[in-house]
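Researcher: I need the complex structure. Ligand is guanosine-5'-triphosphate. Inputs:
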Amino acid sequence: MKNSTQKGLGDPGINQTFRAAYTQKQTGKSNNRKNQTKQEKLARRGGGRGTILVGDSGVGKTSLLVQFDQGKFIPGSFSATVGIGFTTMHVFVFQIWDTAGQERFRSVTHAYYRDAHALLLLYDITSKSSFDNIRAWLTEIHEYAQSDVVIMLLGNKADMNSDRTIRREEGERLAREYSVPFMETSAKTGVNVELAFTAVAKELKSRAIQHPSEPKFKIHEYIEAQKEKSSCCESFSNLLN
Ligand SMILES: Nc1nc2c(ncn2[C@@H]2O[C@H](COP(=O)(O)OP(=O)(O)OP(=O)(O)O)[C@@H](O)[C@H]2O)c(=O)[nH]1
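Model: Output:
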């Protein structure tokens, strides 16, 4: 995925074609049934349990997805997403769509809101405008997405602390106002990337297979517990170093 490569397609109607091509690119295998990996089969069965990444252009949606999917950061190497990109994940059976942040592709993004079960809404902690636009994104989400869609707010580029213009507390306050879970992430260092996707996957899974007698999965509590765990492990490993 170098500069000259478009990250997605502008027409949701041809997403199926792109999906096959993208999967092939990622795995080096053909996407026919015979050659499908276990994850690809699971993803197929997961059907419409789609998660989309939204937010202004340049906040790091594709980088976050690549970090999650491939465990690496490719600095500055993406052209702006055109329409929708696609990958599959294996924490739970679901699909992730990467959307374009640019205004001119919004109508494409709207078409995907309807089918989305979860939305990861990103801003860039070094960009005030991307944070200010979160309210507009939420208005749009409430207009086009299903009313029970899972939303998570992510302040990305947490590694760029010296260029920070949005304090963590501001992100937390906004998230509280809209009753959505929040965390800061870095597609560069990988901080909280796995946690963000895992928390959403667990929430979707619990909704899909929830038995009335089982205790409800609490996404806020899960995130706080996992954050505590990782900060305790970080300080422990700091002690060892
Ligand atoms: N330091 C740092 N840079 C990041 C991070 N995430 C993304 N970037 C950089 O930010 C720029 C934009 O990243 P993209 O992933 O293309 O952003 P996008 O939101 O997908 O952009 P659109 O496709 O235009 O909507 C690139 O130069 C990335 O290398 C991060 O966590 N930390």
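Model: Summary of the prediction. Strands lie at 50-55, 84-89, 94-99, 116-124, 150-156, 182-184.
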